[in-house]
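Q: Could you write out the predicted structure for this multi-component system? I'm mainly interested in how the pieces pack against one another.
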Amino acid sequence: MSANKFDAFAISDANYDPLTPLSFLRRTALMFPDRRAVVYGERQYSWQAFYDRCKKLASALSRAGIQKGDTVAILAANTPEMVEAHFGIPMSGAVLNTVNTRLDDETIAYILGHGEAKVFIVDYELAPQTKRALELHGDKDLLVIDILDLKNTSHPSAIGSQDYESFLSTGSEDDEWAMPTNEWDAIGLSYTSGTSGRPKGVVYHHRGSYLMSMGTITDWDLPRHPNYLYTVPMFHCNGWGHAWTMAAIAGTIFCTRAIDPEEIFSTILEHEISHFGGAPIVLSMLLNSPAAKDFVCNHKIELMTAGAPPPAAVLQGVEKLGFNVTQVYGLTETYGHTVMSTWNSDWDNLDAEARAKLKARQGAAMVMTAGMRIVDMESGIDVPADGETIGEILIRGNTIMKGYLKDQDNTAKSLKDGWFHTGDLAVMHAQGYAEIKDRLKDIIISGGENISSVEIEGVLHKHPAVSLAAVVALPDEKWGEVPCAFLELLEGKSVSEIEIDTFCRSHLAGFKRPKKVIFGELPKTATGKIQKYELRALARSGKLN
Amino acid sequence: MSANKFDAFAISDANYDPLTPLSFLRRTALMFPDRRAVVYGERQYSWQAFYDRCKKLASALSRAGIQKGDTVAILAANTPEMVEAHFGIPMSGAVLNTVNTRLDDETIAYILGHGEAKVFIVDYELAPQTKRALELHGDKDLLVIDILDLKNTSHPSAIGSQDYESFLSTGSEDDEWAMPTNEWDAIGLSYTSGTSGRPKGVVYHHRGSYLMSMGTITDWDLPRHPNYLYTVPMFHCNGWGHAWTMAAIAGTIFCTRAIDPEEIFSTILEHEISHFGGAPIVLSMLLNSPAAKDFVCNHKIELMTAGAPPPAAVLQGVEKLGFNVTQVYGLTETYGHTVMSTWNSDWDNLDAEARAKLKARQGAAMVMTAGMRIVDMESGIDVPADGETIGEILIRGNTIMKGYLKDQDNTAKSLKDGWFHTGDLAVMHAQGYAEIKDRLKDIIISGGENISSVEIEGVLHKHPAVSLAAVVALPDEKWGEVPCAFLELLEGKSVSEIEIDTFCRSHLAGFKRPKKVIFGELPKTATGKIQKYELRALARSGKLN
């Protein structure tokens, strides 16, 4: 298309400003300097104090030689330092690399090497296990900084050359810091836990994180000044971007070092927590906690859940506690949630079961998501919106990663044909709502029939003795594959394999029944996802047959 | 800065999507097809039906030969056709030129010529007066389309070659339409009413309108599904962008052809209107309407007001009616509101007068606004945040116009040094809140002292007999200039010049008192702003001395 009269304008600093979530902090510190930004037990920072600390962190990093595009890694729980890292590190021009706290030494060493970290900030609780990762990594120039428990100054476990507070004091809040000059500049680097092979480094940009926040405010109906409890690990998709989002609406972030149901319940009541998020495993923990019985809350609590599709029984259980659950779907590659199970008031008058089914769907593309499709894996054509035909979920939009760091092959594979290929399987319902059926890897093909392991898990979760269920494919001479169930039972409960089979017969088509049931604790990732690849490997090893 | 490892990614359709408010419509029609989009008396369209009509409009325009970058003008009240124009015209790739309905023939002809309109859609009520504009314009190729009253098919006043519904039926909702390929592409063209000389054509882009909506949702705390009453003329900054914003949150837009207090009050009650906007003149009309006395509303109503700074008495009056007023500030060049008087709960416990003073300020930069400064007109240095020192307001961000169409000189003048120069005068308070004192042109310099005409007007508005007040500079041999007040009185009230002077003496410094008071109806622009340039011209003419 040739240029027209409307194209005759140059972009200028007056009318073009690179989108970045850092702008939220600057504005909120100016407008609401005295409101609480971060609360962590006795420690509380106003937005002005928090901004000053972030500026000092940026300044200290710059003075230590950190330049634009350098990587600064952090291995920490959801403490104020971790929240500060989300602003101070990109404010220095560096890229924030949050590291999963439950990784093994070798993987941490791999990440530090692959991401080319120049600085590594480590929480004192994680220091002992990190020591060996640093030895493996072997980079003597890496600046290691300890986050200490501020109440206890002597830390035999310290592994860094200085502690976080001392490092902050080398910086000044009067130093200038710069907004990104290009909104496509990297802001974050998150390694996927990866079900096989080396973890991949997912790169986020400022534009995506800005729009992620604006879209979350819009679709989660976030008011100004929410009280947000940070139970989602911030190393996981930058904690779904919620630290940046809270800066946009001057919320208060309540930090928590660990997921403890009793602490969550008491924090909700004490601080009138209005919003929090958690993987389905967190929902189960809350539901199964003895503290749940005494929990009575008089204010509204919005709970965002993502990760594995939560069983309907779990969803209903937490709703009974008074939490309004909004399910979302996304991956590390999509900055976290990108699809939301937005409730439609037209459904208000349906019966409880119909409502639960609708609520259990992962949802429709969020406002900042350009599109979601579910396509047939072979033809690449959209499946009909019949709620039955399974296809792969494709997503496109501004909250899709730049790509995998130093990995052109996997970047090209996942971002091909203008869409991000999630590797997740789903069906499409009416009005653009998708329902996840499985990971591509998790589908079980038995006698030529596709069986969704998620469907079987949903049934197993309804059994009163079952706490957690995982179903994978077990090689079978006759059928090719058959379902194999791994069950973790509720404390004090017991059930036999035959009872499970009888239960499944009354809820599932015959060919979908697990042909084998194994009892015991399930292996889980850092974020509470069941490590099905381990179970798949076990099933494939022949040890179960 | 040299490239780093994080720059090694190409932008693709998977991870980059041009920002445009058109995406809101596509998504909401998919997710909420049956919810009401537009209500206009008996006429109601669901989001699906509305989307279909917008697609037909885009298709009809394309089939009529309209191409990307062509201008399509519309002169209409806030009817469904006007809302459709906000989507259907840019969906065709054309630029939407909303024309002020109260302009004279010559100015309309000028706009059609300057904007190079290819299509002109005209409401039947405005046809008679538009006929001469078309004769003056003289472009025989201009496709003129009549918006008719759907209840009445015979319209002697029709001036077009076809009516809107017939034109729609030449298009098909099955035709493809395209999102913009560049978010910097023009979406709208709005001519400023201009206090002198020819109106200037302000050009908006898709990115700005998208961010305007997201910022409004965030800062005005807009929930999903508001009931929005469209009292702000849509020819004015595209009605503050609210049609696009409502599409993002699946609200319902209630159209209204005219500003009628009785109709507004009854619509609010009948349709549970949750949000609306209006210039201060609308607030005054509501307040002074006999219907106000009987108005009792049981639900919360959010009212956004912009334009001239509303007198504190008016603000307090409408709050008593049950409206929560949020004041905003902006210009046509800033897509409408860009600064908002966001309430800070720290102020809740102040006394009523202190709260009213805080509420009367125009506010702080909104979340999508990159920055606001108030600078000394001579030195260009920021004035201190002392609430006293007057300077010019500068604004920058993504919701600043591309520039003035075919007017490089004025574009360069207004967008110089990386900031948009508003020409408005204000003082800066703490926490980034600005308070408008005057237009540059409206400052009165008397005996070397700067006098704010707005301050005097604020005092005059407190007088129980005064409905509207405007103060301008009157040339004076001794003092250079002295304040001259023009007053419109409330029906049935009377007051003498001496009484006004006595009233002013008790509220103003002596040198700020109007030295002359004129009673009578005040000239107003289409948007209800008092046309001070006419009063200034009158004062300068010597006829008053």
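A: Regarding packing and overall arrangement: The two ends of chain B are 64 Å apart (CA to CA).
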